[in-house]
Amino acid sequence: MASLKRLGKRGFLYAVVSFFALFSAFPFFWMIITSFKSTHDLYTLENNPFLFNEPPTLEHLHHLFFDTLFVKYLFNTFFVGLMVVVITLVLAVPAAYSLARWAGRWGENLAICIFLTYLVPPTLLFIPLSRVIGVLGLQESLWSLILIYPTFTIPFCTWLLMGFFKSIPRDIEEQALVDGYSRIGAMVRIILPLSISGLLTVVVFAFTLSMHEFIYALAFISSSSLKTVSIGVPTELIGEFFEWGPLMAGALIPSIPVAILYTLFLDRFIAGFTLGAIK
What we know:
Blueprint (H helix, E strand, L loop, with lengths): L1 H35 L2 H4 L16 H8 L3 H32 L2 H15 L7 H11 L5 H7 L1 H17 L3 H9 L4 H12 L1 H17 L2 H6 L8 H8 L7 H21 L1 H13 L1
Helix pairs in contact: 1-14, 3-14, 4-5, 4-7, 4-8, 4-11, 4-13, 5-8, 8-11, 8-15, 9-10, 11-15
């Protein structure tokens, strides 16, 4: 009886996990099917929308890469994401390290305040940040996004890295100092290699936020050649009617490197979040 009950619980658990796995994978399945379906197959109501009723085609990918500025959108997205990641690491790492090692109780309270700023809805900050961009003359420039996005990534990443740095024993640093390293040298050569999980979490978080952000990118960029994927695909590929094939292909392609990144570093990514949250 006990073994039957245990088997029933395990079966229920697997059923729930399978449901959520299929639910999460369905958008990717739908994007793949739609991206390679012919236009006639897509718009024929009698056809099964979940199968290839006609031979797959590359016409939507050809249209996306050769008839639109999609490649430019990808380059703009990569450039903005890379710059945001660099700025976030340069500012969040020393801030988190100093608060974790030297500030004591005051540093913990300050870390909570820093994290609370991340919880402020971006729409509330839209008007003052728009004013800042206007004063700096960065309208219609990718640098407006590069300036704005770190205001969202730095608070959370600082809070996350603080918990990670606290999990590293102080004795390791003290031994490095005894061996002749400076404080900065000990941080760079000892602490950062031990914090690779947290650093990878920061990189993935900052890059994906930059890739998917929509509100500020839509407000600050109107030139087609400067748009990122998040606004270029939905605004430039929708004309008199929805071009579902190119739209789904445009959504699928940017998600592939992110999915690969999450898959390759999943264990480190989970470790970064859990250590940052627990400590």
